[in-house]
């Protein structure tokens, strides 16, 4: 159903587009090998990031892969639960310490981010940057956003010489550029 909802005939129809249920659900699984048990936990939204529990296309600081970590970052579609075009980049605190945050600009359509850790890994788990393409719907142009992973504020951007449409898991590097 998810992919079917992304067909052009549905996306071009504002009523159908906004009826599309995009609400993902973040879960943390704990697997205990010696007892062969699996426990999972769900998360709630917070006032500081009202759609952080609905993130999709997650990424983490890769220095924390296979280790305990608190933060997951991702895209939250339909952040206001009304319009599919209300898109945010969110930081979800999986340790429950109230550190959820989000970044969004009206009519700017962010896609899947990469977490780039500070050189040497940094002192804290969220020492690094999220790098992602963003389509500016008002200017009809795209840019690469650099978002501080700790504050979730954009620290820099670079114009992209072509329009990058919204995509899922897309990464393409042309040798000609």
Structure notes:
Its cofactor is Fe(2+). InterPro entries: Carotenoid_Oase. The chain is mainly β and 177 residues long. It is built from three helices and eleven strands, in the order αααβββββββββββ. It has helices at residues 2-5, 8-11, 14-19; strands spanning 27-32, 37-42, 56-59, 71-76, 88-93, 101-103, 108-110, 114-117, 128-136, 141-148, 154-160. A hairpin with a 4-residue loop joins β1 (27-32) and β2 (37-42). The strands form three sheets. Strands 7, 8, 9, 10 and 11 form a five-stranded antiparallel β-sheet that branches. A four-stranded antiparallel β-sheet has the order 3-4-5-6, with no helix packed on it.
Structural class: mainly beta
In angstroms, what is the radius of gyration?
Answer: 17 Å
Helix count, DSSP H or I runs of 4 or more residues: 3
Q: What is the H/E string?
A: HHHEEEEEEEEEEE
Low-confidence stretches: none
Intertermini distance:
36 Å
pLDDT averaged residue by residue: 89
GO molecular function: beta-carotene 15,15'-dioxygenase activity; carotenoid dioxygenase activity; metal ion binding
Binding site for Fe cation: 169
InterPro entries: Carotenoid_Oase
Cofactor: Fe(2+)
